[in-house]
Amino acid sequence: MLEGSILQLLETAHRSTTRPIHFGVYYKNTLVALCHALEDHILSDDSTPLVITAFQRGKWYLQEAERYADIAKNSRQIVIMAAPDTGFAEHPTSQLSNVDLVALDETDPVAQEWHLIILSPKYTAMVLCQELSDADYGARGLPATDLERKFYGLWTFEPTLVSETTELAIAHIQKYNPELAQKLSAHQQAIPPAIINPEDLSTVVSRVVDYLQTGQEQLSIPTAMRQQALDNNLLSNEVQAFLRMAQLMELGDINNPMAATEVSAIAETMAQLLDLPAWQIKRLKLAALLHRIDPFRTAPSVLTSSHTTNQQETAPSCPLVPGAQVLRKMPRLRAVAQIITHQTEHWDGTGEPAGLAGDAIPLESRILALVAEFQWRVNQQKSSQQPREEIFTQALAECRQQSHRFDPKLLDALTLLVMGLQQGLDLPLMTPKASTGMWLLDSRWQSQNQTSEDIKIYP
């Protein structure tokens, strides 16, 4: 990580905190898809954000200059940092009143970075990356194609982190243009802190996933192994888009801010008690992390019909909950969408959306429903003065009073788990790192995603 770069300054600021920054490695094709999705959202939104970018070199900006002329129409102010090339300052977009260029010195570490920072009253987003050095590529050497270039960094929607990075970027611009930096600081102060609106955020996330999938369809890399590497990078980031939204919704719930993480931990332990296979436990953990993403049930997809594949058209679907299709756009998340959809079914058949009863309800949905209820009831009692053991006992008793909702076999398993908790069992709470996504997916999902009698996954 280059000394003095914006990425390095952000990492240093968080190194000794309770929330250190987790970075990942991204191929160029992944970053192109991410940035185009976030840029195009500006075109469809009316929030007029402050936009700060770093293009490495002027030639990369020139390839996007026409796009940025349109983006400028919907933006409060755009700043473009890059090491200047011929034509960098002469393009018509550069002459717009709300577009400013910052010509970086060749030795400036930011000239090796790729940034897109968006600060608006409705949402925040950023891509913050630095290109790997020649030495970082190791024995395999430099990439054979431009799309295979690798970058180290992160992308996020988290308002606090985006605002902090905006301040670092403005401080860097101060070295080149103090007057512009002062103007940008005024813009930042004039933009009220973004309030997490699930509907607005779900639209952004949906667009990101669509563009990442389109990036997969458009890849043209000759070697199968290299194609798979780029494809996996895109897939991992699609999963991350959903996880990031879930994490932001957790931050926005002051009454139960750890719900998804705790439900995931309880569900994993329950699944182990039931001796479920590892691939099914992974799927249940992911469903638990995403189980509160209700806005996706109503958020329209921005995929056009031209991007729809035959595989998507023939995929299993639940017409009763159309919004679950947002998760189903990813083949490996279709089963997860089904789990989340049917978590509101009741054991006696009085639940929704399909009125399934008994063992007809997918097993993972039954587990998720019970552990989510248990976690909520435990959380309700945390502020009381009761001992931990009594809180668990009371939450279990309240779950048992709803025997019409829950599988009696799972209630017995939860009773065993509560006994363990009362005797000091610690659950492995784990928040997914922002840089990872593939840990929840493996090669067995393709075959196990289909309807099967033993796991009872229904459309």
* Number of individual domains: 2
Q: Which homologous superfamily in CATH is the superfamily of the largest domain?
A: Hypothetical protein af1432
Look at the structure and give the CATH class of the largest domain: Mainly Alpha
Distinct helical segment count: 16
**Biggest sheet overview:** 7 strands, mixed
At CATH level 2, the architecture of the largest domain is: Orthogonal Bundle
Task: Give a count of the beta strands, DSSP E runs of length 2 or more.
Answer: 7
Q: Using only CA atoms, what is the Rg? A: 24 Å
Shape verdict: elongated
Distance between the termini: 47 Å
- The average pLDDT value, as a whole number, equals 77
Helix content: 40-55%
Descriptive account of the structure:
The chain is an alpha/beta fold and 459 residues long. The protein folds into two domains: 6-195, Endonuclease, Chain A; 242-448, Hypothetical protein af1432. The chain is 47% helix and 10% strand. It contains 16 helices and seven strands. It has helices at 6-14, 28-44, 58-73, 159-174, 178-190, 198-218, 224-251, 259-273, 278-290, 310-313, 325-328, 334-341, 363-381, 388-400, 408-422, 445-448, and strands spanning 24-27, 50-57, 77-83, 99-103, 113-119, 124-131, 150-156. The protein has a seven-stranded mixed beta sheet, sandwiched between helices. Strand 5 (113-119) and strand 6 form a beta hairpin. The chain is elongated and about 70 Å long. The protein starts with 5 loop residues before the first helix and ends in an 11-residue tail after the last helix.
